[in-house]
Amino acid sequence: MSKVKKKIKTIKIDVDKCNGCRACEMICSAFHANPKYSSNNPERSRIRLICEPLKDVYLPVHAGEYAAAECIGRDKYVIDGKEYDECGFCRASCPSRDLFKEPDSGLPLKCDMCEDDPPLSEPMCVQWCINDALTYEEREEEVEEEEKLGDMETGLESLADKYGLQKIMDTVARMSMSKKG
C-alpha cells in the first residue's frame, strides 16, 4: 500500500470548561434529523455527555468507529473520588451497549464532523459550545491508503453481526418478492 496525505479532523475537549449544558447534544441531534433541524432527539446525537453534577464533572464524548465485538477492557477510572467504568469513556458503538446507535434501526452512529454541502467551517457542536470546551482542529498526516466501507456496507455489517447473514438474506428475498407482487 502507498502512503497518502490525509486531513485529520479532531474535536479537542477541555473538560475543565464544560458546564454540562448539553447544547452540543441538542444541535448535533437537530443537524442529523431528517429533514435537517426538523426534530431533536438526543439519542440520535453523535456526542454524549457523561455527567456527575454533584462533583461538577462533565465529559463530552463523541462517537467513534463501530466495533463488531465488545472489548475485553473493564478498567475503572477514579476522577475526584468518583469511580467510572471504562465503557463510559469509550467512543465506539458496540454490541454490549446502546450508546451511539440509531434509536429506530439500531445501526451504529459515528461523528461525521457535520459534513455538509457547502462544508461547514467547524462541526455544529463546536460552534454551539458557549464555554469553548470543544475546539476543532485539522492537521495533515501521511497514512497508509486503505479501502473504506461505505455507509451501506457498514450498516449491513452491523445488521449481520446482530441478526446473522442468513436472516438478512431471507428478509431481502422476502422484501423483493413483495415488491414484485
SSE topology sketch:
Elements: E1 3-13, H1 23-31, E2 47-52, E3 57-62, E4 76-79, E5 82-85, H2 124-128, E6 134-144, H3 151-163, H4 165-180
Antiparallel strand pairs: 1-6, 2-3, 4-5
Quantity of strands, as a count: 6
Number of domains: 2
Radius of gyration: 19 Å
Amino-to-carboxy terminus distance: 48 Å
- DSSP strand content: 15-25%
Query: Whole-number average pLDDT?
Result: 84
Low-confidence stretches: none
Question: In what order do the strands lie side by side in the largest sheet?
Answer: 1-6
H/E order of the elements?
A: EHEEEEHEHH
Shape: globular
Largest sheet: 2 strands, antiparallel
What do you see in this structure?
It contains four helices and six strands; from the N terminus they run E-H-E-E-E-E-H-E-H-H. The strands form three sheets. A two-stranded antiparallel sheet has the order 1-6. Strands 2-3 form a two-stranded antiparallel ribbon. Strands 4-5 form a two-stranded antiparallel sheet. Strand 4 (76-79) and strand 5 form a beta hairpin. 19% of the residues are buried. It folds into two domains: 3-146, no CATH class; 149-181. The mean pLDDT is 84. The longest helix is centred in the last third of the chain and has 16 residues, at 165-180. With 181 residues, the chain is of the alpha+beta class. It is globular, with a radius of gyration of 19 Å.
